[in-house]
Amino acid sequence: MKVLFRAALVVLTLFLSVAVAKDKGKDKDKSPGSVLHAELIGFQEVPVVSTVATGEFHGVINPGDQLIDYTLTYSGLQGATTQQAHIHIGQRSVNGGIVIWFCQSAAAPAPPGIPTVPQCTNGSGTFSGTITAANVVAIGGANVGQQVSAGEFSKVITAIRAGKAYANVHTNLSTGGEIRGQIRLLGKKGDDDDEDED
Fold it and tell me: By the number of CB atoms within 10 A of the CB, which of 26, 92, 137, 160 ranks highest?
């Protein structure tokens, strides 16, 4: 009887050990997404813009790299946002092509075929939403050589993780952008963080 009891106890212990190991493996699959951040200021623009305006971009790439939940805020814009706000692919101090639209205006509407883009607000504003492959627009014009086509979300994620994407807000006084900030993974420092450089 004692032998059967011990054998049952060993089997039960092995079963529980396997179950715990499987649960720990599942927890690894449920890791939080990559947290993104950018501080937007005029001195990050190319060329530099002397403005009191500031902004912030916060985002989270989901663990499966299928979407980005984000919030963009800005305030103190000296020009009217008759232009737009975006994510561009480009390293620090270089202007790159638009891949994601945060907001648009009648003077500068988003391209057709992407999900609804809200109207930009003058002076200050907050925009939140979810970015998916459907939001990615093809880089065209002078930047077509960057080779990003509509829907290529994985290329946008790769650029963001490499520190080679930025958020900015364009206005009628600064059509190339009044405020800008390089998007980076929170907690990582390097040559692409948001600290001022000479």
Answer: 160
Helices (H), ranges, 2-98: 2-29
Q: Note the pLDDT tens digit of each residue in 93-121.
A: 999 999 999 999 998 999 999 999 999 99
Asked whether the whole model's pTM tops 0.85, one would answer: no
What DSSP character marks residue 123? Answer: S
> CB of 103 within 8 A of CB of 85?
yes
Closest by CA to 160, choosing from 184, 181, 134, is 184
Q: Which conformational region is residue 163 in: left (phi greater than 0), alpha (psi within -120 to 50 degrees), or beta? A: left
Are the C-beta atoms of residues 134 and 114 closer than 8 Å to each other? Answer: yes
Q: Is residue 157 within a helix (H) or strand (E), and if so which, with residue range?
A: helix 153-161
Assigned fold of 34-185: Immunoglobulin-like (2.60.40)
Break the chain into its structural domains and give their ranges.
1-30, 34-185
